[in-house]
Design a protein that fits this description.
Elements (H helix, E strand, L loop, with lengths): L1 H38 L17 H8 L1 H32 L6 H9 L6 H22 L13 H29 L3 H9 L4 H12 L1 H16 L3 H6 L11 H11 L3 H29 L4
């Protein structure tokens, strides 16, 4: 009787406290995901009430689409450089701002602030900077290298996109790294200093191994965010020039809603999802292996 009461109490507690979150998660995440997989096996255009089940034809079409794979290559470049530079800059900022210094809280808030700005607004601000601000300075100083818009040339446009992504995400990752630094036992640092360890030696043998959990989280978040980047892409470059900055997320949106090929767009979205899952699983696995126990 007591066991039955305990089970009933646990069920009631779950329904009251976790029930709303579970319902929200199912209706917002799981159900649309399952419906999306089903629609990826059809020829639905996103509008009509009637569609035909086509099996894996949409996936075959996606694999045969050179433009889709071109977008994928561009996305891989964007993710690679975006993740590396974001985490390097965030780690350096965290290392500097975790030391006792006047105004450290102000600097932390300043570096974190770009993450609070919406991607569309951020893209429009930097679009003005790359189109008007930097070229204007270059023309006045007679510097041909920066006298033309960064967004008018394919290679520069991609780097402009990477710069904006890094600028937005570095402050957020910096906070996570600072939290990792604060969890390092002071006794380890003091013992290393007594033994005559240099700054680089402390960084290599103590700080980096102890901050690996923060690396795991930060790399995971930046990977996920970079693969799914759309708002900055549409506001800053709109995929141009000549589709040289069209990331996969924009490609999927254009295919589904602009070209009205929702089935193919959903298939491409699922391929992107699988890619993100595979990459992040490998990243988390190898990052976890590098972590050390205190």
């Amino acid at each position: 009787m007591r066991k039955e009461n305990n089970l009933i109490n646990k069920a009631l507690n779950y329904i009251v406290f976790a029930g709303p979150c579970t319902v929200a998660f199912l209706t917002v995440m799981i159900v649309p995901f399952v419906i999306g997989i089903y629609l990826s096996l059809s020829d639905w255009d996103g509008i009509s009430n009637h569609y035909v089940f086509t099996g894996f034809q949409n996936y075959i079409s996606s694999f045969d689409d050179k433009q889709f794979w071109n977008s994928f290559i561009i996305t891989i470049k964007f993710v690679l450089f975006g993740v590396i530079f974001t985490n390097i800059i965030a780690f350096i900022l965290a290392l500097l701002l975790s030391k006792p210094m006047s105004g450290s809280n102000f600097y932390r808030a300043s570096f974190f602030a770009p993450n609070l700005i919406g991607g569309i607004i951020l893209g429009l601000i930097w679009r003005f900077i790359f189109n008007e601000g930097i070229p204007g300075i270059g023309q006045k100083l007679n510097l041909p290298a920066i006298s033309t818009s960064f967004l008018s040339m394919p290679q520069r446009a991609l780097w402009a996109l990477i710069i904006v992504f890094v600028w937005q995400m570095s402050g957020y990752m910096m906070i996570i790294y600072i939290a990792g630094f604060m969890n390092i036992p002071k006794e380890l640092i003091e013992a290393a200093e007594i033994d005559g360890a240099t700054g680089f030696s402390k960084l290599k043998n103590i700080i980096l191994p102890m901050v690996m959990p923060s690396f795991t989280v930060c790399i995971f978040l930046t990977l996920q965010r970079a693969f799914m980047t759309y708002d900055i892409n549409i506001a800053l470059t709109q995929g141009g020039p000549f589709n040289s900055t069209e990331l996969v997320a924009m490609r999927v949106y254009n295919k589904a809603f602009i070209s009205e090929q929702y089935g193919i767009g959903q298939a491409e979205a699922f391929i992107l999802f699988l890619m993100v899952v595979i990459v992040t699983m490998f990243q988390v696995y190898f990052s976890k292996k590098a972590e050390v126990e205190v």
